[in-house]
Amino acid sequence: MVALAFAVFAASTSAVLVRWSAAPSSVAAFYRVLFTTALVAPVALVRNRADFSRLSRRDLAAAVVAGVALAIHFAAWFESLNHTSVAASVTIVQSQPIVVALAAGLVLGERITRETVAGIAVAVVGAAAMSLGDAGEAPLSDATLYGNALALLGAVTVAGYVLAGRSIRQRVSLFPYVTVVYAACALTLGALVAAQGHDYVAYPAREWLLFLGMAVGPGVFGHTVVNWTLKHLESVVVSVAWLGEPVGATLLAVVLLAEVPDAVTVAGGAVVLAGIAVTTLERERRDGSGT
User: Where are the transmembrane segments (predicted)?
Assistant: First the structure.
């Protein structure tokens, strides 16, 4: 749980780093994942070289699918912001714990109690309040519906990424798993950058430092630590804890971007934390009682 809290904070730095970057969003996402892969792959080759040969074809294929799902999440979510309001996009993407909760019971056999469902509902309501704090409504046009659909795709794919990690990490060591996932994600995003016609290298030194920061903070200490926790925590708990990311991002924005949130955003953050607490305390109760 301590590692998960640290990972959520590290992931919270992503919004500030992306805001500072002037590069196209797909390029920033590509280099974030590529540099993260470059940082974790040597560790995997030194510590877990033999584990790669023991990867079954099924687990290898599943890890690749998880990486592609993560790439689709990044691509769909960022693109959705070009077609719909920030409020709609963020609210829809943050509905992913509902997808995880429903799928975890069907696919992974995890028991979802009423208390867990209540915690998820509270956290999602809080996340919606945060995203609606300072936003107006976009007109309901075909473009808006398209943007909302992309955001929903982002929610579903990141839920698939969490569920795949929860399943595979029971059998596969951390670094071989994330190396395969990040490599597949980077290759997918790299193909997207090429398809969009963006330049790969024509960026100033400041951008390269930001790309590296995204890899070290949100990448290594964020997503990689989250993948480590998936061996020890249920996917629903990990997924709901991710809703703490906008809380951390809001606090960092106050300090680093001088963006002071309004009362609705602050209240929504408190509700998110309450939902996380309900879900995690319920897990601890069930683990303690052996049920």
Answer: 30-48, 60-78, 84-109, 116-133, 145-163, 175-196, 208-230, 237-257, 263-281
DSSP structure class, residue 90: H
Residues in contact with 109: Cβ distance below 8 Å, sequence separation at least 6, in sequence order: none
The structure tokens listed for 36 are: 């993260």
Q: What is the mean pLDDT of residues 150-163?
A: 84
What's the rounded Cα separation, in Å, for the pair 151 and 75? 10
> Under a CB-based contact definition with an 8 Å cutoff, are residues 7 and 229 in contact?
yes
Backbone dihedral angles phi then psi of residue 169, each to the nearest 5 degrees = -65, -10
Q: Tell me what pLDDT residue 217 has.
A: 92
Q: Is residue 30 a contact partner of residue 190, using CB atoms and an 8 Å limit?
A: yes
**Pair 133, 268: CB distance under 8 Å:** yes
Domain region containing 246:
2-289
> Which residue from 269, 268, 267, 245 is spatially nearest to 97, judged by alpha carbons?
245
pLDDT of 34 reads 94
